Amino acid sequence: MSILIDKNTKVIVQGITGRDGSFHTGQMIDYGTQIVGGVTPGKGGQSILDRPIFNSCAEAVKATGADVSIMYVPAKFAKAAMLDAAHSGIKMLVAITEGIPTLDALEAYEALKANGVRLIGPNCPGLITPGQCKIGIMPASIHKPGKVGLISRSGTLTYEIVHELTLDGIGETTCIGIGGDPVIGSKFVDLLPLFEADPETEAVVIVGEIGGQDEVIAANYIKAHMKKPVVGFMAGLTAPPGKRMGHAGAIVGGEDDTAASKIEKLEAAGIPVARIISDVVKLVKKQLG
Amino acid sequence: MKIHEYQAKELFRQYGIPAPDGAVATTADEAVAIATKMGLPVVIKAQVHVGGRGKAGGVKVVTEKDQVKSVAEKILALTIKDLPVRKVLVTPAVVIKKEVYLSILIDRGARAIVFIGCADGGVEIEETAKTHPEKILRHEVTATECAKLDKAKLLPFASKLFDDPKQAAAAADMMVKMGKLFMEKDASLVEINPLIVDDKGEVIALDGKMMIDDNALFRHDELIGYRDMDSEDQDELDAKDAGLSFIRLDGTIGCMVNGAGLAMATMDTIKHFGGSPANFLDVGGSSDPKKVVIAFKMILKDPGIKVILVNIFGGITRCDDIAKGILASMQEFNVPVPIIIRLVGTNEKEGRALLEGTALTTVTSLEEGAVKAAKIGSLT
Fold first, then answer.
1. Among B186, B264, B313, beta carbon nearest to A159
2. How far lies B119's CA from each of B54, B158, B175, in Å?
3. Cα(B165)–Cα(A135) distance, rounded to whole angstroms?
4. pTM
5. Which of A122, B125, B225, B285 shows the smallest number of beta carbons within 10 Å?
């Protein structure tokens, strides 16, 4: 089992003819992901990597029965692509693009939500159910089917933690990068119930950072509703206030959104938080018994 | 990007939001000329990107003409929270009958745009939010509707700020205009603090603050001139132009990492083992060796650097490209400090092979690298 995606998930790629889009489409196909087509406005009717190209998501969904779209469209054109997905009948949109204007993302989020489409990202590495389906840009080789679910606001930091879980033989059920932007489609609290309900997930790791209150809201949710153990890691203890640390959403605005304050609140809710990356695996093992 | 009060008020006036006239002076003589034309009394206000200007002596009411020069001189000589005051806004003094707080911002938690209001004024708005959360009014709107809000729907909110129906109607009208300004300029914050009623009963934006979404600046050429170079770090801007994220800190260990989260975690790990990071640096998601060279240039500008730690977890970024960039940097600059390198992920073998036989130290884990760097970094 897994959450959100598995070997039967049918995927289309928005921006499939772009440099990043075509490269990662090849990588996803190699992993075994069912890529059933792509979307590039104006290139409908052509094909790439033996997959048909469509002018719009709606056309692609109609012709292929796709469930999920992954988007590599540049930031300037992302809103139009996201609105296209919102009205296409797709069930989930994974927005990889970094640097989308916040108000564009918000407007697109509203349209996606109104149409019942789940949004992962933007500014995220995507998600993967090891051994079954990869919808994203993460290096496939570091993953291994196993028993830990992972939700993270970061990309490479997640790879680092996944790598250690894999090297230790624990493995993962599904790993989701939810994105580093201020406005994201799925937060920790939106995904934790799915892991709680997934029979194969035995523990969950949440990887947060400075900025916003999502980790604290997650802590309260975990305390009140989850039986499965959760382990945390929070990046940015050394981040100075008022500076945007790479991610648009990673900025310390007040005393409540520092890494230290989040660690304190998570630990107060009974969630162990690792101070260095290698301690994540140790804490997970301890929780699994 | 933050913009100054006088710039925010320029935009307010463009959008029909009533704000007092005013002009900006960079010298005391200019301030005198403006005040003379405007007529006394005036308020002279430091234009710097920090809060607490008033407390720092950066805002003064001047009633006598012969005092304008000395007051302006004093304010222009101030440094408020490390920022030198280079400009003052000279604006007519207004009689305040009532003051409230009003802003519109993106609430990331609610994933909505929200108006925030407080009838008690906004002198200590953050404190009020903690001690009397019930006094903070909220009205959420969607991004889809924000540019064309319906005044009638905003009236109940405005009526909680102003008892007087005429004033409430003026405030609701102002909120419609704020919504349009917010959307059209890609703001993340438009704040009027205070929003006042003057002795004629008019509702006026006495002070204004705005923040513009950096991600949207590409479509706002008209706002680029608003950037205040004094409050920006030139290295940080150069880095951004090169597609990197860079922030200088005060430690001794230079860091070069791919990915913002891992870059923060790398800094945290260095600190955990007793070292202190000299910078935050995310080389970004692609793997152009040129970016690595620029990154080295940034790091090496700091004379306090004792060691550089490179931590790469290859995904989109390829380790061999990073290695090539490191070697190119070694040729281009005479790197005076040891470099500790950790490469994992995409094309790791190729990357390591390129570095073999050089004097560079390679490590296999972040922690090993951080411990080594911390040791060198703390040598005096």
1. B313
2. 21, 10, 15
3. 55
4. 0.93
5. B225
Burial string for B211-226 (b: 16+ CB within 10 Å, else e) reads bbbbbbeeebeebeeb
- Determine the structural domain holding residue B331 and report its residue range: 234-377
Q: Final residue of a domain: which of B224, B245, B269?
A: B224
Across the interface, which of B245, B280, B315 has its CB nearest the CB of A138? Answer: B315
CATH of the domain at B56: 3.30.1490.20
Interface mutation target, options A112, A152, A156, chain B, most CBs of B under 10 Å: A156
Residue B5 lies in a domain: no
CB B261 to CB A155 under 8 A? yes
Q: Is position B344 within any domain?
A: yes
Say if the ipTM goes beyond 0.90: yes
Q: Is residue A57 a contact partner of residue A85, using CB atoms and an 8 Å limit?
A: yes
Interface with A, mutate which of B83, B189, B264, B347 (most A CBs under 10 A): B264
Catalytic sites of A, residue numbers: 247
Identify the CATH number of the domain in which residue B322 sits.
Answer: 3.40.50.261
Closest partner residue to B265 among A212, A235, A244, by Cβ?
Answer: A235
Task: Kindly state whether residues B103 and B184 are assigned to the same domain.
Answer: yes
Domain assignment present for residue B220? The answer is yes
Instruction: Assess whether B6 carries a catalytic annotation.
Output: no
Nearest 5°: the CA angle B204, B210, B216 is 140
Domain count, chain B: 3
Q: Do B109 and A214 touch (CB under 8 A)?
A: yes
Which region, left, alpha or beta, applies to residue A22 given φ > 0 means left and ψ of -120 to 50 means alpha? alpha
In chain B, residues with a C-beta closer than 8 Å to the C-beta of A208 are none
Question: Closest chain B residue to A245 measured between Cα atoms?
Answer: B260
Closest-CA residue in chain B for A23? B316
Q: Which residue has the tokens 């008892």?
A: B163
Whether B356 sits among the annotated catalytic residues: the reply is: no
In-domain check, residue B45:
yes
Q: Do B316 and A137 touch (CB under 8 A)?
A: yes
A129 in Cβ contact with A149 (< 8 Å): no
CA distance A102 to chain B (A): 7
> Residue B222, SS3?
helix
DSSP assigned state of A113: H
CB contact under 8 A, B247 and A240: yes
Let me know whether B85 and B119 are in one domain: no
Which residue, B224, B244, B272, sits at the end of a domain? Answer: B224
Q: Which residue out of A103, A110, A112 would a mutagenesis test of the B interface target, given it has the greatest number of B Cβ atoms within 10 Å? A: A103
